[in-house]
Amino acid sequence: MVAISLVVPTYRRPRMVARCLESVQHQTLSEFELLLVDNSPDGELRARIDEINDGARVPARYISEPRLGLHNARHAGAHAASGDVLVFTDDDAVFDSGWLAAYACCFDAHPEMVAAGGPVRPEWEAPPPQWLCELIQADSRMFPAFSLLDVSADFQLAHDGIFFGVNMAIRREALFASGGFNPEIFGERWLGDGETGLNRKLWARGGLIGYVPDAVVHHHVTPERMTLGYLRQRQANDGACDMYARFHQQMPTWPGLLRAAAAVVADSARDWAAEPFLRGRTDPRALRVQLRAARGWARLEYVARLMLNPRLRALVARESWL
Q1: Is 0.90 surpassed by the pTM of this model?
Q2: Per-residue pLDDT tens over the stretch 180-215
Q3: Shared-domain flag, residues 199 and 269
């Protein structure tokens, strides 16, 4: 069977990562490697991990990655890992006991599969408001703001398969051949399209991506995330991703960026005009307008930052971060 390495990046969330590592201990897969990558190196967290490891069936190998950025943390884990298949998750997740075993079996049975994802279900830390439930139900297959995914009850293998970073697995050789993850978040600042960009690179290379219905992750959703303000921020992050994906392969000249800014204004002007009158409302139309407006403002801000910041233009054009 393929060797599995599980990589868990963390950034200043010691309580959450302790819960995550406790959940990992209940995996039915008999052998796997566990790597915890600390993106804000903290002696107190390392001491806490040592305490957890004292009673752990699978001890976590602590890796310090002081270079800020989720992609840097993921890549530090990938470089340190020894497994044939690298599984990535987030520090605010917990897992069905058969999660890793499901991935191991599918990668063993399907040597042509280069990567895979699985179901991501919400673990509500408080009852969600009705308007949020209705928004999620509008597309029951996925809700990117919480990385929720529920594609099918059956295994699938396709050239356009998808995964979220909270529940994904990839053959080590495929990750390195594709150039790894695109940048995503630096602390609190959003730069690029992260695992979405990795999805696109795998599609472009013709790789087959699986959906493994038995590889189930539960993503904790705190009350702070069940708000319109949080969803607006998530849409703003997605707006930054839009512009990164648009300009990553070919950075336009300054006049080209100016034309791109004008296009964003033309596309978003109606939402921006309507949004002040709908702010705070949670009926479906008001939500759509507010979220589109937030995404539009973020797109415009990103283009403006590109126009004014040559260093950012260089970062967006960078091909590999491994």
Answers
A1: yes
A2: 999 988 766 788 999 999 999 999 999 999 999 999
A3: no
Show the domain range for 290: 228-317
pLDDT digits (tens, 9 = 90+) for 225-241: 999 999 999 999 999 99
* CATH number for the domain harbouring residue 90: 3.90.550.10
In this structure, are 276 and 205 located in the same domain? no
Q: Are residues 175 and 233 in the same domain?
A: no
In a domain, 322, yes or no: no
Spell out the SS3 assignment of the chain.
Answer: CCCEEEEEEECCCHHHHHHHHHHHCCCCCCCCEEEEEECCCCHHHHHHHHHHHHCCCCCCEEEECCCCCHHHHHHHHHHHCCCCEEEECCCCEEECCCHHHHHHHHHHHCCCEEEEECCEEEEECCCCCHHHHHHHHCCCCEEHHHCEECCCCCCEEECCCCCECCEEEEEHHHHHHCCCCCCCEECCEECCCHHHHHHHHHHHCCCEEEECCCCCEEEEECHHHCCHHHHHHHHHHHHHHHHHHHHCCCCCCHHHHHHHHHHHHHHHHHHHHHHHHHCCCCCHHHHHHHHHHHHHHHHHHHHHHHHHCHHHHHHHHCCCCC
